[in-house]
Design a protein that fits this description.
With 450 residues, the protein is an alpha/beta fold. Helix content is 32%, strand content 21%. The protein is built from 13 helices and 19 strands. Helix 7 runs parallel beside helix 8.
């Protein structure tokens, strides 16, 4: 039925993508037909992000762009639904600002999406105005029974081991949007991993707001190291990649678990945010520059050849020029394999929003560019050192680089945020192949099959 055709737009982080996939599967099971083409959809659903100002702007722009298909447009779209972090954060106040939207749903409505659309399309069940916003407490935590769409999946899949966050960094709205940290059980996650493997997934990408907080809220307090070891025992899974680790919780036990398991990629994402002690205190981050150096040194000692990725914030209130120079010097000294930089975004409701700031937007952007220019030099040198080496590559598709047929990633390249590996030949997607690196640039590698 055309009226039950849905197009889903997923914005923001990998954790949001998992929610979008769960909603897609729930809608398919509820009798809805999913389409990748908005011009074919009766219902367009946008799962939004509201972490920082650029994410909010992107969400609103996408809502307005999708609204062009609705009501008299060239397509059959009759209803626009907005879910996720934007409505969870701003609630019913969005109704007046975005009259194009028929229904706003908070993050807790993920498992109820089919029922909500049934009510929307079927009309009110009783007299009176229909609610345009359903925003409850953010208590939803998915489980292995909530599947992803389709009989087969791409070679890589995110596995969300927890939701929410209890860290209370002074710049971050995630605890207010997603609630306190809530972990899934080890057995449930192993069951989901086995199901993903049975559908063709070769790489599990472990994600949460803070993966190293895993298990602290569960009976028996299972550790992340234990969970990773259990996931490594799942048949069919070849690689396991770890994202979003908090440096103060990157223990020797966890590092040892990564070092011992062949399936665990020697790759750790450690968002340090900054290195200057005063800025870290203002951010309400645990640890200082000396402890960050110790953690990084320990990781490289316990896991030889480990690739380290980090994320930084520049322009935070109180980041003087000297403190920024400390950060730039730290980047030169530590030489992360991969690095991303955000300019500070003043978010209402956060402790940092009350701090005076004299750093202009152009100056924030200048600092971001300086860090990225420095990192580009470091990345180019690290990649150049890989030329001539042999690497395992997980094939994901076809390359658009001249003279190269296949596209994939090495163990030290995470999807979407790091570079890729172009392969001269065209191996089938999902294959893990041995390659020799023949060339490199700042971010990507170029290889031929062995």
């Amino acid at each position: 039925m055309p009226s039950r055709t849905v197009h889903i737009v997923s914005l923001g982080c990998p954790k949001n993508l998992v929610d979008s996939e769960v909603m897609a599967a729930a809608l398919a099971e509820g009798g809805y037909l999913l389409t990748d083409r908005p011009e074919e959809a009766a219902v367009i659903l946008i799962n939004t992000c509201a972490f920082i100002l650029p994410a909010k702007e992107e969400s609103v722009e996408e809502i307005l762009r999708m609204a062009a298909w609705k009501g008299g447009g060239s397509g059959p779209c009759t209803h626009l639904v907005v879910t996720g972090c934007l409505p969870q954060r701003y609630g019913a106040s969005l109704e007046e600002a975005l009259p194009e939207v028929d229904l706003f749903l908070g993050v807790g409505e993920v498992p109820h999406i089919a029922r909500r659309l049934d009510a929307l399309l079927g009309g009110p069940k009783r007299p009176g105005p229909r609610r345009r916003s359903v925003i409850g407490k953010p208590t939803f935590l998915m489980n292995a029974d909530q599947r992803r769409p389709g009989p087969a999946m791409p070679p890589s899949a995110y596995i969300k081991i927890a939701d929410g966050c209890s860290n209370r960094c002074s710049y971050c709205v995630i605890p207010a949007i997603r609630g306190k940290a809530r972990s899934r059980t080890v057995d449930d996650l192993v069951r989901e991993a086995a199901g993903l493997a049975s559908r063709g997934v070769r790489e599990l990408i472990v994600t949460a707001q803070d993966t190293t907080a895993y298990g602290a809220d569960l009976k028996g307090k299972p550790t992340l190291g234990l969970l990773l070891t259990e996931l490594a025992g799942v048949d069919g899974i070849a690689w396991i990649r770890l994202l979003y680790t908090y440096p103060a919780r990157l223990t020797e036990e966890l590092l040892g678990a990564i070092a011992r398991q062949e399936k665990l990629c020697r790759y750790i994402d450690i968002p340090i945010q900054h290195c200057d002690d005063a800025v870290l205190r203002a951010m309400n981050r645990r640890g200082d520059a000396a402890e960050l150096r110790t953690v990084i040194s320990r990781a490289r000692e316990i896991i030889p050849g480990v690739a380290l990725r980090t994320s930084l914030i520049v322009g935070f209130p109180g980041e003087t020029r000297r403190r920024f120079e400390n950060l730039l010097a730290f980047v030169r000294e530590v030489r992360f394999d991969h690095l991303g930089v955000f300019t500070y975004s003043r978010e209402e409701g956060t402790a940092a929003a009350e701090r005076p700031s004299r750093i202009s937007a152009p100056e924030k952007e200048r600092r971001r560019e300086l860090v990225m220019e420095e990192q580009a030099l470091i990345s180019a040198e690290i990649n150049a050192a890989l030329v001539g080496s042999e690497q395992e590559v997980l094939v994901e598709g076809t390359s658009d680089a001249a003279g190269y047929g296949g596209l994939g990633r090495c163990r030290h390249q995470a999807p979407d945020i790091d570079g890729v590996t172009h392969i001269v030949q065209t191996p089938p997607p999902g294959a893990i192949v041995r390659c020799r690196i023949v060339a490199a640039d700042e971010y990507d590698l170029y290889a031929t099959l062995l």
